[in-house]
Write a structure and sequence with these properties.
Blueprint (H helix, E strand, L loop, with lengths): L2 H13 L3 H4 L14 E4 L4 H4 L3 H12 L5 E7 L2 E6 L1 H15 L13 E5 L14 H16 L3 E5 L7 H13 L2 H6 L2 H18 L2 H14 L3 H25 L16 H10 L3 E4 L2 E4 L9 E4 L7 H16 L3 E5 L5 H13 L8 E4 L4 E3 L14 H19 L6 H17 L8 E3 L1 H4 L7 H21 L17 H11 L1 H11 L3 H20 L7 H24 L9
Parallel strand pairs: 4-5, 4-9, 9-10, 11-12
Antiparallel strand pairs: 1-3, 2-3, 6-7, 7-8
Helix pairs in contact: 5-19, 5-22, 7-9, 7-10, 10-11, 13-14, 15-16, 18-21, 18-22, 19-21, 19-22, 20-21, 21-22
Length: about 575
């Protein structure tokens, strides 16, 4: 039974309103003592020209009884509904056990494509800790939209164009060692060359002229320089694959800035033909002063393109190629102005789909008061942070569970998960300082806590299966025993996970799922301590085991959607 759907239909009939209008008004009270579902009647005051309290009282009288609900209360301007606990438990558990890892999924996105651009690393530069948010946030959004039936296209929009590659060419030709780069720590060798270039350029400014000339040769596809440029890309992608493997992340497209370079002339001509661009001080710009924004530069005074131009070309290409329903750009808030400008230019070009382009911005992450600068060579490599998390977790596991099998694999799952969960546990726009002690805590609102709770549910199920010789749920389930406060709270938390998933997609906020996972884990642990799951009464045991299994599935689904694995033993 879908309690909200049943209630929506009943309220529509009693009020004379359309179900599609009254349904969104129904909410879940934060305090369960105020009901399992509630209808605030304040928005109806204008429609019915009555006080909210009077509307609530009249609707209660008209409703009388609603299937699946034990009572209805009119309190002030609210109409509060209390579900029949036994029916609610049966409905929630049956739904979760039937859907399994598809719990909370839907087909609402069927036939619609969503492009998600994230991570977007720079070639020949470090895959640093500052990339973690875009990488895991984008991956989570991809999984969420997949779960809701959309077809997602994950795009790693590589930063692979610009004068910095001329600098790399010059640095490599002067000081590079191909064998050392290919057989050593590739990225660090390339970064060392980049740092050396800037050190030397301070003493010999003419190196900057050589770099500009080298990049021009790349633009002209001169064989030797183009081959080196492509080699830098190959080396970088091979190196960063280790990090993506640790995070369980793959991409459908690595089309970066260079991919769109041959598409620039058509964009520039279109802007000119439509009278949108103009030349100002030698630069081609789109004047956005009317919209309280500085001009969007299309061509610099030397005739070279800028990343805004390439983004316009990329957006048009993606619409033509994927016909996206939405195109998400998971990029830090420092680029807010850029995206406002870029989207406005698309709108001025007459593309109505510009409204479907969304900048999913986020705050910055810092770690141990360290700052990041490739030029100075003090990068904090993401791979190092992940490996440190794994090592620290392995040490904790060896202390807490020395006999655990596959300790290294569990340490990887938990260590990586700790970092990912810590990033996705708060509103994305907030700046965040990473803390080892907090993130690796098995008792707080952390990834390890959620994973440990899931492992606990698996342990219960193993014991149940062993005790009943594989027939832990064979007895008829007495759902009425799940009416205690702890069981009811766990059922409510599980039941609202699908709602959190939909809200996360609508708001581009995976933290709504992370918080819901912690709520389910907290409720399960209270249920675990308050109730004897392996009760002597077979029907009671079957009910509590079924609820345990449902909780485990919900936790596993939630963890997956935010990018974590769920180890069965810890």
């Amino acid at each position: 039974m879908d309690f909200k759907a049943v209630l929506t239909d009943a309220l529509a009939s009693a009020s004379g309103l359309e179900a599609q209008d009254i349904g969104p008004m129904i909410e879940t009270p934060a305090n369960p003592e105020l009901g399992d579902l509630a209808l605030p009647c304040f928005k109806l005051a204008k429609t019915f020209r009555k006080a909210p309290a009077l509307i609530a009282a009249e609707l209660k009288e008209k409703l009388g009884y609603v299937e699946g609900f034990s009572r209805i209360e009119a309190v002030g301007g609210y109409l509060n509904f209390f579900t029949d606990k036994s029916a609610f438990a049966r409905t929630v558990i049956s739904r979760v056990l039937t859907q399994g890892d598809k719990y909370g999924s839907s087909d609402e996105g069927a036939g619609r494509n969503v492009c998600v651009e994230y991570s977007s690393i720079n070639i020949a530069k470090p895959f640093g800790i500052h990339h973690i948010t875009t990488t895991v946030l984008g991956n989570s959004l991809k999984r969420i939209y997949d779960h809701l039936g959309f077809h997602t296209i994950s795009i790693n929009h590589l930063g692979d164009w610009g004068t910095q590659f001329g600098k790399m060419i010059v640095a490599y030709n002067l000081w590079g060692d191909r064998e050392k780069i290919e057989n050593g720590n590739s990225m660090r060798e390339l970064v060392a060359l980049y740092v050396k270039f800037h050190e030397e350029a301070e003493k010999h400014p003419e190196l900057n002229d050589e770099a500009r000339a080298a990049f021009h040769r790349i633009e002209m596809h001169e064989p030797a320089d183009w081959a080196l440029f492509q080699w830098f890309k190959d080396v970088t992608l091979k190196d960063v694959a280790k990090v993506y493997d640790l995070l369980g992340i793959t991409f459908d497209s690595y089309a970066g800035e260079s991919f769109y370079e041959d598409k620039m002339p058509a964009i520039i001509k279109e802007l000119e033909d439509k009278g949108i661009s103009k030349v100002d001080k030698g630069m081609t710009i789109v004047d956005l002063s009317e919209y309280d924004m500085p001009p969007c530069i299309i061509l610099k005074s030397d005739g070279s393109t800028i990343y805004a131009t390439r983004d316009i070309a990329a957006a048009k290409y993606r619409k033509e190629t994927y016909d996206f329903y939405k195109s998400l750009y998971v990029v830090a808030y420092q680029q807010n102005l850029h995206f406002r400008q870029f989207f406005k230019v698309l709108e001025l070009m007459g593309y109505e789909w510009a409204k479907d382009c969304v900048h999913v911005n986020f705050g910055m992450i810092s770690m141990e008061d360290m700052t990041f600068s490739t030029r100075k060579g003090n990068a904090i490599y993401l791979e190092d942070v992940l490996n440190t998390a794994i090592e620290k977790t392995l040490h904790i596991i060896e202390e807490k569970s020395p006999n655990l099998e596959n300790k290294e694999e569990v340490a990887r799952q938990v260590g990586v998960g700790a970092l990912v969960f810590s990033v996705l546990y708060n509103n994305r726009i907030k700046d965040y300082t990473f803390s080892w002690d907090k993130s690796l805590n098995f008792d707080g609102e952390t990834g390890p806590y959620a994973q440990y709770t899931y492992a606990r549910s698996c342990s219960v199920l193993r014991k149940a299966a062993e005790a009943d010789k594989g027939g832990a749920c064979a007895a008829a389930i007495d759902y009425s025993v799940l009416s205690d406060d702890a069981s009811a709270a766990l059922l409510r938390a599980i039941d609202t996970l699908p709602e959190a998933i939909r809200a996360a997609a609508e708001k581009y906020e995976p933290y709504l799922i992370s918080r819901k996972v912690i709520e389910i884990c907290s409720a399960f642990n209270k249920f675990y301590y308050d109730n004897r799951i392996m009760d002597d009464d077979a029907a009671v045991r079957a009910a509590r085991v079924a609820l345990t299994k449902a909780a485990g599935i919900a936790i596993r689904v939630g963890l997956f959607l935010v990018g974590l694995e769920a180890p069965e033993r810890m």
